[in-house]
C-alpha cells in the first residue's frame, strides 16, 4: 500500500514537471518589427543590427547576432537596444512562477572600449499602466534593469542566469537581480510584478563622460528561457476576506457560504459554511473556480494546505480538493475535531491523492479549490474556517487609498458613477455605494450597494446605477461613494461626492399589500382579481436577462408577467406565461418549464449576503411545477400540490400557461423552522 501511494505521488508531482522551463525565444525566426524594435539615444550614430546567425549556435538551427554601435552622445553616456513586446495589446507575460531568467551568449567581437560598456536586461512592468497601451513605449512602464558585465568576454558560449528578484542598487554588482533605477519610466507601484511584464529589452549602455566617441561590438544570443520553479503561496482566505482574484465562491448540494465579521480567531473574520443535503446522500460543498489558474508546481512537494477550523459534533469526514480539469482531481480526506473550538490543520500537498477516477492532475495549472462533505453532510450544520492558504504568504493588512475623484453623470433613469483608479494598485476592485444622506462610513445604516456594484474590476472606472421606485416613476436623490479593495481584500476609505444627485426613476411592480380579490381569492387561473396589482414584467424585448446557457428568440418564445401580493396570513402569487413550446416531462425539476422565485423575507440594506439566511432573515427558492410547488434549497421539499384548492397550474390559449395560488406564511416558516414573516 505504501509503495503504491509513493508511486501515485510521483505521478501527481510529475504532471507539471514535463514543462520544467518556459522557452521565451529560441531565436529561430527573425524578429517581427510589429512587436519589436531597435532604439538608441543618438539615432544617427548609435544602432543595433539584428541578423539570424546559423554558424555559431548554442541550440537549434539559428541564433540572434546583435551587431551594436553606441556613442557617448549624452552627459550620462548613451545606449542602443532591442525591445521585444507582447503581441497582444491587452496581454502580459507572467514570469512569477520562475526563479531565473536564462540566456546564452557568445561575445563574438568584444567591446572596442573595454570595461566601459555593459549589457542591461530590462523588464517593462505594466502593473500600474492601463491596457491597451497607446504605443509600445518603455517610458510609460516601470522599467527594471539588470547589469551584465559580459561585453569584454572572450569568444565562447556562456550562460547568464539572472534571479528574478528586486535587489535594489545591488543589481549593479552584476547578474544578481533587477533594480528600478528611476532613470527612465514611471514610478508605478515600485514593485517588480513578474506577472505583469509587457516587454523585455536587451540594452547596450556606455558610461560618461560625453566625449562623443563611438564604440562597437558583436554578441550572439540564443535560447532565452525562464526556469527554476519557485513555491508560490496560494491564499484562499486571509482572515479578512476572500482575495479579489478568486471572485465569488460556488456552492453545490445546497451548501451556503458567507464571511462572518469578527467570527474568527482573535477578532479576525471567518468563513461560515452551512452544509446542505440536496440529494439525501451527504454530499455537499463549496469552493472557487481559479482564473487565471494557480501555479502550484514549485511548492507541491514542500508546501502544505494550512487553515484553522471550528465545528461541532454533526461534522463528519471532509475532503479538501484541487482540480486542474475534468480528468485532474486530487483530494485529502480528514475528520476535524468537533468540540466547537478553533484548531489548526496542515496537510502536505504531496499527500493529496487522485480521486473520482481521474489520472491527469496538473500542479502547474490548478483551476478549482474546494472543500466538501464526502457523504457526511448534514443540512444546517455549520463549519467555520479561518486563515486558509498554502506556504507562508506575506499578509497585506494595509488598506489602499481612496479612488479620486468621483463624478456622477445623470442618464435616463440611471446615474453613471465614474472614478479614477488608485495609482500603485494591481488586481484591485472597486465598490460603489449610495445613500439618501452624506456618506462618511460605507458600513453605516442607510448606506446601500449599487446593484452589481461590488467588485468592479480595475480599469473599468464607471458603473451605472439603475433607478427604480415602487409602482410609478418618481424623483430620487442620492449621494454616492466609491472604495478601492486591494488584491489582498483590504477595503480603503471612501471617495465621495459633496452634493447629491437628483434623477427620475422607473416605476416597477412590487409585492402588493392586502388581500387579492377583496377576500374572495380563488386559485382558478382567472387572473381578473389581480387587475389592481402592477405586474413584474420579464420580456426579452424590454431587456429581461436571458440565462447564458439558454436561447430565447423573443417575446413569442418566452415572456412572463408575474403578480405578487401579501396579507397578514398568506403569500399570493400568479404567473401569466407565454411559452411556444411547453415541456414538463424532464426528469430534473429545474429542466421543466416552470418559473422560479427567489424570496428574501426581511428588510435588506447594504452589501448582498453571500449565503441563504434562516431564522429572522430567511431566503426561499420556490419552483412552481405543473403538479406542485417545491422549495429547491431545502432538499426540494414539496410546499403545496395541485390537489389543494390553493394551487392552480394550467395551459392557456393559444400558447403558454397560467399559475395562481397562495401559501400561508406559517407553512413557509415551517419549512426550515424560520420565524413567521409579518408583512
Q: What is the strand and helix layout of this fold?
A:
Blueprint: H1 2-17, E1 21-25, E2 36-40, E3 47-53, E4 63-71, E5 78-85, E6 98-109, E7 117-125, E8 142-145, E9 157-163, E10 197-206, E11 214-229, E12 235-237, E13 250-252, E14 256-260, E15 270-274, E16 283-294, E17 304-311, E18 318-325, E19 328-334, E20 343-348, E21 353-354, E22 366-374, E23 382-390, E24 406-411, E25 414-419, E26 429-435, E27 447-449, E28 456-457, E29 462-466, E30 468-470, E31 474-485, E32 495-496, E33 501-508, E34 512-513, E35 536-538, E36 558-566, E37 570-579, E38 596-600, E39 619-624, E40 628-631, E41 637-641, E42 647-651, E43 657-664, H2 665-670
Parallel strand pairs: 30-33, 34-36
Antiparallel strand pairs: 1-11, 2-5, 3-4, 4-11, 5-10, 6-9, 6-11, 7-8, 7-10, 12-23, 13-16, 14-15, 15-23, 16-22, 17-20, 17-23, 18-19, 18-22, 19-21, 24-25, 25-29, 26-27, 26-28, 26-31, 31-32, 31-33, 35-36, 36-37, 37-43, 38-39, 39-40, 40-41, 42-43
Task: Write up what this structure looks like.
The protein has 679 residues and is mostly beta strands. The protein folds into 4 domains: 22-229, Jelly Rolls, CATH 2.60.120; 235-390, Jelly Rolls; 406-508, Sandwich (Immunoglobulin-like); 512-670, Immunoglobulin-like, CATH 2.60.40. The protein is 3% helix and 41% strand. It is built from 2 helices and 43 strands. The strands form 8 sheets. Strands 26, 27, 28, 30, 31, 32 and 33 form a 7-stranded mixed beta sheet that branches. β40 and β41 form a beta hairpin. The longest helix is centred in the first third of the chain and has 16 residues, at 2-17. 36% of the residues are buried. Mean pLDDT is 91; it is low at 1-18.
Amino acid at each position: 500500500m505504501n509503495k503504491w501511494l509513493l508511486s501515485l505521488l510521483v505521478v501527481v508531482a510529475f504532471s507539471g514537471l514535463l514543462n520544467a522551463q518556459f522557452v521565451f525565444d529560441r531565436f529561430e525566426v527573425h524578429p517581427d518589427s510589429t512587436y519589436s524594435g531597435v532604439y538608441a539615444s543618438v539615432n544617427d550614430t548609435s544602432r543595433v543590427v539584428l541578423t539570424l546567425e546559423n554558424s555559431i549556435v548554442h541550440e537549434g538551427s539559428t541564433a540572434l547576432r546583435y551587431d551594436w554601435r553606441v556613442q557617448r552622445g549624452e552627459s550620462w553616456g548613451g545606449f542602443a537596444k532591442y525591445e521585444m513586446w507582447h503581441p497582444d495589446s491587452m496581454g502580459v507575460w507572467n514570469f512569477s512562477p520562475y526563479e531565473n531568467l536564462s540566456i546564452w551568449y557568445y561575445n563574438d567581437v568584444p567591446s572596442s572600449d573595454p570595461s566601459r560598456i555593459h549589457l542591461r536586461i530590462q523588464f517593462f512592468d505594466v502593473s500600474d499602466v492601463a491596457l491597451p497601451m497607446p504605443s509600445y513605449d518603455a517610458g510609460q512602464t516601470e522599467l527594471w534593469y539588470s547589469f551584465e558585465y559580459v561585453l569584454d568576454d572572450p569568444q565562447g558560449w556562456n550562460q547568464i542566469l539572472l534571479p528574478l528578484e528586486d535587489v535594489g542598487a545591488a543589481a549593479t554588482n552584476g547578474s544578481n537581480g533587477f533594480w528600478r533605477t528611476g532613470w527612465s519610466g514611471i514610478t508605478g507601484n515600485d514593485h517588480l510584478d513578474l506577472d505583469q511584464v509587457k516587454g523585455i529589452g536587451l540594452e547596450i549602455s556606455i558610461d560618461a563622460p560625453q566625449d562623443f566617441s563611438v564604440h562597437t561590438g558583436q554578441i550572439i544570443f540564443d535560447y532565452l528561457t525562464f526556469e527554476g520553479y519557485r513555491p508560490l503561496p496560494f491564499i484562499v482566505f486571509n482572515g479578512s476576506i476572500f482575495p479579489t482574484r478568486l471572485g465569488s465562491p460556488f456552492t453545490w448540494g445546497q451548501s451556503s457560504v458567507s464571511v462572518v465579521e469578527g467570527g474568527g480567531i482573535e477578532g479576525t473574520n471567518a468563513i461560515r459554511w452551512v452544509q446542505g443535503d440536496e440529494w439525501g446522500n451527504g454530499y455537499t460543498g463549496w469552493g472557487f473556480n481559479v482564473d487565471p489558474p494557480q501555479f502550484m508546481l514549485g511548492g507541491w512537494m514542500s508546501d502544505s494546505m494550512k487553515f484553522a477550523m471550528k465545528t461541532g459534533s454533526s461534522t463528519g469526514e471532509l475532503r479538501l480538493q484541487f482540480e486542474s480539469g475534468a480528468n485532474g482531481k486530487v483530494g485529502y480526506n480528514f475528520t476535524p475535531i468537533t468540540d466547537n473550538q478553533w484548531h489548526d490543520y496542515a496537510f502536505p500537498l504531496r499527500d493529496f491523492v487522485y480521486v473520482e477516477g481521474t489520472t491527469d492532475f496538473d500542479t502547474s495549472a490548478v483551476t478549482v479549490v474546494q472543500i466538501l462533505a464526502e457523504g457526511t453532510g448534514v443540512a444546517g450544520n455549520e463549519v467555520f474556517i479561518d486563515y486558509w492558504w498554502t506556504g507562508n504568504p506575506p499578509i497585506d493588512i494595509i488598506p489602499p487609498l481612496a479612488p479620486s475623484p468621483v463624478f456622477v453623470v445623470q442618464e435616463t433613469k440611471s446615474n453613471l458613477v465614474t472614478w479614477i483608479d488608485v495609482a500603485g494598485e494591481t488586481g484591485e476592485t472597486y465598490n460603489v455605494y449610495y445613500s439618501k444622506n452624506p456618506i462618511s462610513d460605507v458600513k453605516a445604516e442607510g448606506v446601500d450597494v449599487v446593484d452589481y456594484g461590488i467588485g468592479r474590476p480595475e480599469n473599468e472606472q464607471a458603473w451605472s446605477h439603475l433607478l427604480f421606485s415602487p409602482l410609478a416613476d418618481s424623483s430620487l436623490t442620492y449621494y454616492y461613494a466609491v472604495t478601492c479593495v486591494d488584491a489582498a481584500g483590504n477595503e480603503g476609505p471612501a471617495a465621495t461626492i459633496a452634493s447629491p444627485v437628483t434623477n427620475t426613476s422607473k416605476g416597477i411592480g412590487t409585492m402588493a399589500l392586502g388581500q387579492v380579490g377583496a377576500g374572495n381569492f380563488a386559485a382558478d387561473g382567472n387572473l381578473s382579481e389581480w387587475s389592481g396589482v402592477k405586474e413584474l414584467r420579464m420580456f426579452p424585448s424590454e431587456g429581461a436577462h436571458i440565462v447564458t446557457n439558454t436561447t430565447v428568440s423573443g417575446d413569442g418564445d418566452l415572456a412572463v408577467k408575474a403578480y405578487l401580493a401579501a396579507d397578514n396570513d398568506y403569500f399570493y402569487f400568479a404567473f401569466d406565461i407565454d411559452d411556444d413550446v411547453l415541456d414538463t416531462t424532464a426528469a430534473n425539476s429545474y429542466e421543466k418549464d416552470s418559473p422560479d422565485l427567489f424570496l428574501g423575507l426581511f428588510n435588506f440594506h447594504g452589501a448582498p449576503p453571500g449565503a441563504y439566511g434562516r431564522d429572522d432573515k430567511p431566503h426561499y427558492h420556490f419552483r412552481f411545477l405543473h403538479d406542485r410547488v417545491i422549495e429547491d434549497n431545502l432538499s426540494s421539499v414539496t410546499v403545496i400540490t395541485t390537489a389543494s384548492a390553493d394551487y392552480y397550474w394550467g395551459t392557456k390559449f393559444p400558447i403558454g400557461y397560467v399559475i395562481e395560488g397562495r401559501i400561508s406564511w406559517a407553512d413557509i416558516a415551517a419549512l426550515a423552522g424560520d420565524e413567521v414573516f409579518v408583512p
